[in-house]
Amino acid sequence: MLLDHWPLTGLRVNTPRLELRLPSEEELGELADVAAGGVHAPDRMPFVVPWTDLPPAERARSVVQHHWLRRGNWTPGDWALNLCVFEDGRVVGLQTLAARDFAVLRQVSTASWLGLRHQRQGIGTEMRAAALHLAFAGLGAVDALSGALEDNPSSFAVSGKLGYKSDGAEHVNVRGRRATIRRLRLPRAGWEAHRSVSVTIAGLAPCLPLFGLPGEVASGAVSGRADVISEDVRPEGIA
Ligand SMILES: CC(C)(COP(=O)(O)OP(=O)(O)OC[C@H]1O[C@@H](n2cnc3c(N)ncnc32)[C@H](O)[C@@H]1OP(=O)(O)O)[C@@H](O)C(=O)NCCC(=O)NCCS
Question: What CATH number is given to the structural domain containing 59?
């Protein structure tokens, strides 16, 4: 079975409203449809790589190819988990959790997008909270990094609610113009202080080696993962 060779297909992260998991090939097509339907107003560009400038059909194909690329070039030292976000069984967007040298650095970064019609309903906050739970509770991260171009109030609002703090700035070329990324960092203590979404994780234990972690951390043996004692992780007392 594919699950034996690629256990990430069995990984599930659930919040009250959402499920995050790898998509089937048909669901990847649905994700591409969502991208083709629009991710932001055309006069804005929230991404450093301006993939949404492509015409809808090419934009959709780029979603499919990028998904295959990051599955295909996955290594335990350099991975990007592109989780499809489902609300009531419908694909609404993508939540990425990525890291390099995670076994040593214990640091992840996130990126996300939603179809335009699914934005500003709290989904972006809930899916980021799910990714952070996977990182901190599931994998034992010590830091989560984020950042956005400075004219992206939604992204900063999501990060602010989840406790991220400023971590400097950098300049990038976006559509041929100098733009500023404001970097953000969420240390483990900040995540613990701000978490407010109930999240469950299933199917993680067989995936741990793919994240660069030894299999035995499934029993909570690695420092920083003391709150992970089973595959189902639900913070106590959180609504
Ligand atoms: C960023 C994104 C994933 C957030 O998802 P979302 O579901 O819209 O986010 P939420 O509804 O959970 O929260 C958005 C917050 O931004 C706030 N917000 C939205 N537009 C705003 C504006 N123009 N000014 C100030 N705040 C704004 C909302 O009020 C909300 O905060 P609140 O819950 O405190 O009221 C989504 O907007 C998106 O896909 N954007 C396009 C792609 C993108 O920018 N990706 C990130 C690249 S770094």
Answer: 3.40.630.30
